[in-house]
Amino acid sequence: MSKGIILKVWGDNACFTRPEMKVERVSYDVITPSAARGIVEAIHWKPAIRWIIDRIHVLNPICFENIRRNEVADMISQDKVKQAMNRGNLSELIYHVDDGKNRQQRAAVILKNVCYVIEAHFELTEHAEASDNEGKHIDMFRRRARNGQCFYQPYLGTREFTANFELIEDRTAIPRCHEQLNGEKDLGWMLWDIDFKNGMTPHFFRASMTNGIITIPSQKEIIL
């Protein structure tokens, strides 16, 4: 696949939050396709291309950990930001994190010692120009990933769980999944991605892992 890339990502912790959990964060068993896309886009993205996740290899055994952490109760509203911009004065645009009403301690179920291999390819979008050819963008991604460059630090679900990454240049170099992951495992309904063009509509699919590998369906195949 000339337009394809293979990327290894890993980290000490991860949290790919299930959307059905309203207050406490509970992670999916594995990385979601949308989170994988976010990692790839952190390395190289342009309006001319759209990244599509093909397969996810889960290399390490799935291990959860319960933690408690401080979070804020809400965010500064857009209305207050607009008002401050219209006034030309940001002095009143203040959020006191240490206020007892704003800071809350919540439980979270996160993943420990995660490691994945992401296989992905891209398609040219309607924003592509004559200079936006496939070879140009794939070479740019591989060069940036090879040198450890990124537009912003990729993360594993939430920003405090940063992701390390490494380009895999040859399919034969993909590490084998842990033997504990052998066989079939039904992961249940999982978030595929969010359609930002149509009212941020979430799309889900029935995830299944075979010997540590999850094949991601195309958009035409998913169940809305």
From TrEMBL:
Membrane-crossing segments per the record: none
> Which CDD domains does the record associate with it?
Cas5_I-C (cd09752)
Q: What is its EC number?
A: 3.1.-.-
Q: Which InterPro entries match?
A: CRISPR-assoc_prot_Cas5 (IPR021124), CRISPR-assoc_prot_Cas5_N (IPR013422), CRISPR-assoc_prot_Cas5d (IPR010155)
* Gene Ontology MF term list: endonuclease activity; hydrolase activity; RNA binding
GO process terms (BP): defense response to virus; maintenance of CRISPR repeat elements
Q: Which UniProt keywords apply?
A: Antiviral defense, Endonuclease, Hydrolase, Nuclease, RNA-binding
Asked if the record carries the keyword Acyltransferase, the reply is no
> Member of which family?
Belongs to the CRISPR-associated protein Cas5 family. Subtype I-C/Dvulg subfamily.
* Role noted for this protein: CRISPR (clustered regularly interspaced short palindromic repeat) is an adaptive immune system that provides protection against mobile genetic elements (viruses, transposable elements and conjugative plasmids). CRISPR clusters contain spacers, sequences complementary to antecedent mobile elements, and target invading nucleic acids. CRISPR clusters are transcribed and processed into CRISPR RNA (crRNA).
Name listed for the protein in its UniProt record: pre-crRNA processing endonuclease
The record lists the organism as: Methyloprofundus sedimenti
